[in-house]
Design brief:
Strand content: 25-35%
Number of helices: 9
Largest sheet: 6 strands, mixed
Helix content: 10-25%
Radius of gyration: 22 Å
Shape: globular
Strand order of the largest sheet: 1-11-7-10-9-8
Structural class: alpha+beta
Length: about 425
């Protein structure tokens, strides 16, 4: 229910198309349990393009999404992103704008990040927090376009929960009239990731603008920055440097009516030398796990604080001292005293054999005491090792600690391992000689 204090605007471009699908699938982690009844799935604007490319489509966060493609399996797709580039459809994610004279103050209430320090067109990872407990409602990217205009991207699986959370908080926010919350419905979003991404994007922008003098210098465009490119053909494109793979790359927000055309042109440019291939959820999951990134609903949830999750760095030190955000007291205690943090998110390498998957118990090999649980795990295509992340009892969290993981009823040797497992290749500028 929308209260009078809430100024909520929906920018409706093209309503998501739908299909009926059952939840049966052999792909782990991307489907609902067999007991879940038949559901109506949304389609992204690129759905037909995926099907034409031979994608295996599965239910994910209420959408029909590609997990792999017929011409290249998960492992090949993963390696292609690490060595060349992959193009991911992430249009299922929710894009917002928060505008107005009180937008900054409102976001400072919901998140622990010090958004005051953001420069225009700079971004940060952050999260919405529950009052009192400091549990994570959802993790998100926040970009400051101006002191009164913020662009936010959050998870599709949390869309309804996040909207209710925002509405309820606006209803009780004293300066609600100074906040305009805009849901960018129908806006396309793609991620071009990998070492060839910058070359392909530069050629694409040159084609769009037709004049080298107007093409932005991508060498000076750094990780966690955003820019807007106004094109005669495709309108305003918002391009952020970053992504969910650990590779250099870009996330491009596109007007709905141009999403297919922009994607097809990038693929056409990248076809030469097989620089760019479509990539699906399968590769996205293994890439993000190698880089130590969290997936909400698995590695993060409502009961987990940023400190427990190894995200202390997103909590502003000044915010801890000043307060004024949800869960401040809980997070401040944990921030200042590690003895109050009873569990930690850590990485693991696990002996050869079947990988440890979500839910596998972590135990002390000497006493068989249960120390925690795995939240994500897979064979690493890059390292050739079984890797995982999970939460473990404090005291056992240090790198090098030997533990055991229960896999298919058997104990398997595992070692607590520092993340990321694979060093990120974010572009932060030329390396000084």
């Amino acid at each position: 229910m929308l209260l009078r204090t809430l100024r909520l605007t929906y920018i409706r471009t093209q309503a998501p198309r739908t299909q009926f699908a059952t939840s049966q699938s052999q792909i782990r982690s991307y489907t609902s349990p067999p007991s879940v009844p038949r559901v109506e799935l949304k389609k992204t604007l690129l759905h037909d393009l995926h099907v034409a490319a031979g994608a295996k489509m599965v239910p994910f966060a209420g959408y029909s999404m590609p997990v792999t493609y017929s011409d290249h399996g998960l492992g090949d797709s993963h390696k292609h992103v690490r060595t060349k580039a992959g193009l991911f459809d992430v249009s299922h994610m929710v894009q917002y704008r928060f505008k107005g004279p009180a937008a900054l103050e409102f976001l400072q209430l919901l998140t622990p990040s010090n958004l005051v320090l953001l420069k225009p067109y700079h971004s940060t990872l952050s999260c919405f927090l529950h009052p009192v407990t400091g549990g994570i409602v959802d993790d998100l990217m926040i970009t400051m376009l101006s002191p009164e205009d913020f662009y936010v991207v959050s998870n599709a699986a949390c869309a309804e929960k996040d909207l209710t959370y925002i509405q309820e908080n606006l209803a009780s926010f004293p300066k609600a009239k100074g906040v305009e919350h805009i849901v960018l419905e129908g806006q396309g979003l793609i991620a071009l990731q990998g070492p060839e991404a910058v070359v392909v994007l530069n050629e694409f922008i040159l084609r769009c603008l037709g004049d080298t003098s107007k093409v932005p210098d991508l060498e000076r465009f750094l990780f966690s920055q955003m820019m807007s490119v106004s094109t005669p053909t495709y309108g305003e494109l918002h391009i952020a440097r970053g992504g969910y793979t650990g590779e250099d790359g870009f996330e491009i927000s596109i007007p709905s009516e141009h999403t297919v055309a922009v994607t097809e042109e990038l693929l056409q440019i990248g076809k030469q030398g097989e620089r760019v291939k479509l990539a699906g959820l399968g590769a996205r999951d293994t890439l993000r796990l190698e880089t130590g990134m969290c997936l909400y609903g698995h590695d993060l949830d409502d009961s987990t604080t940023p400190i427990e999750a190894g995200l202390k760095w997103i909590v502003g030190k000044e915010r801890v001292m000043e307060g004024g955000f949800h869960g401040h007291e809980t997070i401040a205690r944990q921030y200042n005293d590690w003895s109050l943090v009873t569990r930690r998110r850590v990485g693991f390498t696990i002996e050869k054999g079947a990988p440890a998957r979500e839910g596998a118990e972590i135990v002390d090999p000497a006493t068989n005491e249960v120390l925690g649980k795995i939240t994500s795990g897979c064979p690493s295509p890059t390292l050739g090792l079984n890797i995982a992340m999970g939460y473990i009892k404090s005291g056992f969290h240090k790198s090098g600690t030997e533990v055991a993981v229960k896999v298919r009823g058997k104990s398997r040797s595992a070692t607590v391992t520092k993340m990321p497992f694979v060093k990120p290749n974010y572009w932060k500028g030329p390396v000084s000689a």
